[in-house]
Amino acid sequence: MTDLARLVSDIAAEMAACSERGTVASYIPPLARIDPRQFGLCVVLADGTVHQAGDSEQPFSIQSVSKVFALTQALGKIGDALWRRVGREPSGTPFNSIVQLEREQGIPRNPFINAGALVVADVNLAGHAPKLAIGELLRFVRYLADDETIVIDEAVARAEQETGFRNIALANYMRAFGNIRHAPELTLGVYFHQCAIAMSCRQLAMAGRFLMQGGSHGRQAARVVSPQRARRINALMLTCGHYDASGDFAFRVGLPGKSGVGGGILAIAPGKASIAVWSPGLNANGNSMLGTLALERLAEATGWSVFAPSGQA
Ligand code: GLU
Question: Is 261 in the pocket of ligand 1 (CB under 6 A)?
Answer without folding.
Answer: yes
